[in-house]
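Sequence only, no structure available. Ideas?
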Amino acid sequence: DLQICQHQAPTCCTKKMEESYQAAVRRERTQSIQALNFELKYMIVGHITAFQEAFESLLRFAENRTSSLFETAYRPMAKEAAEPVKELFTDLSLYILGAETTVESAILRFFDNLFPLVYSRLINPGITDLSEDYTECLRLTRQDINPFGRYSKNMVAELSKSLWASRMLSQALSLGIEVINTTEHAALTKECTRALVKMQYCPHCQGLTLIRPCVGYCLNVMRGCLASVSELDAQWREYISTLEYLTNEMAASHDLEIALTGIRNSVNEAILHAQLNGPQLSATVDKVCGQPKQQEGNLSSDNIVPVKEATETQTFMMAHASLNSKRREFINYMKRSRTFYASIAERLCDGDLVMRDSSTCWNGEDVV
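Reply:
I predicted one. Tokens follow.
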């Protein structure tokens, strides 16, 4: 009553053994594909972690630089500006990691929150009544009177370009893991399972436990079994080309590191612009939001302190070099994996599964 290992000669197999063999080949095939995938997956997962650590390091550096701007140049508002600065860099970090947000919304929210502070601490430092209603009015007015000139829009344009490639790379790496995981759990068809049993275990039914499949026979069976997986070849090659394009984009004109470290200067220029246009801004704000309570003897807003450059360049250079070397190392490895799905049958038939250095092997029917 054998269904798969039918043979003229006497056999030591039963139908129940055939069922056990089918379970065994399904398990073995999953394990062997997992073993093949392991190195590739390990490399991608390792680089997702490494890229994220490098991104976080650069973001922290840029955040510290921006915070130090307020501490050195705009002390009256340094304490209150800490929260908007932190929010901005958290939003940028979430954007890189693929959150449903935009660079523009993050930057404009930052400038909305910054304007009430600039207005009440630098332009009109005598204001004592910064009520919720008045603060909200200043926030909404920012969008209409554009106190920061072109600098807020320039910052959006510059960061959108540079962070886009980083965000896409982050998403592309996650997609790679998803593809690999899917191929690991691809179900074997009934025909494939039977063909694998015939190739690996039917010789056992005749007591030929040491004989192994012929190379050509193994390749035919594996190619048939993995036809759906090897169809990924063209898309996988295209995927590798996309990764290459994204890593080049990150390293080229839209350089992430330069854009992030430029945030400090952009914010400084924006605040200086608002201060220089203080009288016009005050006139407009008074019309829209009314006049708030003032302290006696208004403090002068002319004392614009020059910006001291941050001296943490060594940390930045290390993060910059680290990100660049990781990009190069990663893309070189991925380029070598271009043929991963095209050659999967060959790799599964490699090693101990087939008979290579002997004159006899199993062809599915007999020893040849």
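Residues 15-291+313-349 form one domain.
Hope that gets you unstuck.
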